[in-house]
From TrEMBL:
A matching Pfam family: Aldolase_II
Keyword Coiled coil among UniProt keywords: no
EC numbers for this chain: 4.1.1.104
InterPro entries recorded: Aldolase_class_II_sugar_metab, Aldolase_II/adducin_N, Aldolase_II/adducin_N_sf, OtnC
Known function: Catalyzes the decarboxylation of 3-oxo-tetronate 4-phosphate to dihydroxyacetone phosphate (DHAP) and CO(2).
Example GO BP: pentose catabolic process
Protein known as: 3-oxo-tetronate 4-phosphate decarboxylase
Protein species of origin: Rhizobium lusitanum
Reaction(s) this enzyme catalyzes, per UniProt: 3-dehydro-4-O-phospho-L-erythronate + H(+) = dihydroxyacetone phosphate + CO2; 3-dehydro-4-O-phospho-D-erythronate + H(+) = dihydroxyacetone phosphate + CO2
Length: 216
């Protein structure tokens, strides 16, 4: 199987897994992944993660021009901004509308610089700090501008009242990271107002140092 055919299958398999577990619904969410020659495979607009067709994924050339497949997601500005600002660290981008993450994003008192409380080691290890961005209308190119404004310093952001966006070195890593984001948001919702014990600054610093986490 060629690299492109394999990646097409991976995108559809992982998307269906996310859909089957309720991490996205309807036609929400989008995925992009980069081939070794710089081309991008992207989930089409209006498509369900539960029944993607590998042959119909949108295909972009290395210059960002659509060269095959169906019309791409309208959230391309989000994806493009991560590939532009983190070119050596981004091989895939995943965007979901996962419920707990969205719920946490619209509650008062959430730290916009790091929306996930340090409840476990895993969100720190896989995500670093998650920047909470303001609300944008879906498809608004300003979302991409907001990510560019971070100058490549964050691998994950949360769009208020919309959903998380995570970039990583490859598709598997991006999927695992966004799953961890949703699970940590769920824990934050479950423990909100209960005064949970958080990781200490020293424990966080140890994780950052040991796992080379982007934190500053």
């Amino acid at each position: 199987m060629s690299e492109e055919a394999d990646l097409r299958e991976q995108i559809c398999t992982m998307a269906k897994s996310l859909y089957d577990r309720g991490l996205t619904a309807g036609s929400s969410g989008n995925i992009s992944a980069r081939l070794s020659d710089g081309r991008l495979l992207v989930t089409p607009t209006g498509s369900s993660f539960g029944r993607l067709d590998p042959a119909r994924l949108s295909l972009f050339d290395g210059e960002g021009r659509l060269i095959g497949g169906d019309k791409p997601t309208k959230e391309m500005p989000l994806h493009a901004a991560f590939y532009e600002t983190r070119p050596k660290k981004t091989g895939a981008v995943v965007h979901l509308h996962s419920s707990h993450s969205v719920a946490l994003s619209i509650l008062p008192g959430v730290d916009a610089e790091n929306m996930l409380p340090p409840l476990t080691a895993y969100s720190i290890m896989k995500l670093g700090k998650v920047k909470l961005l303001p609300y944008f209308m879906p498809g608004d190119p300003a979302m991409g501008d907001a990510i560019r404004g971070l100058a490549g310093k964050r691998s994950a952001v949360m769009l208020a009242a919309h959903g998380p966006v995570v970039s990583a070195k490859d598709l598997e890593a991006a999927v695992y990271a966004i799953e961890e984001l949703e699970e940590t948001a769920k824990l934050a919702m479950l423990t909100r107002g209960a005064n949970p014990s958080l990781l200490t600054d020293a424990q966080i610093a140890d994780l950052v140092r040991t796992y080379d986490v982007e934190w500053d």
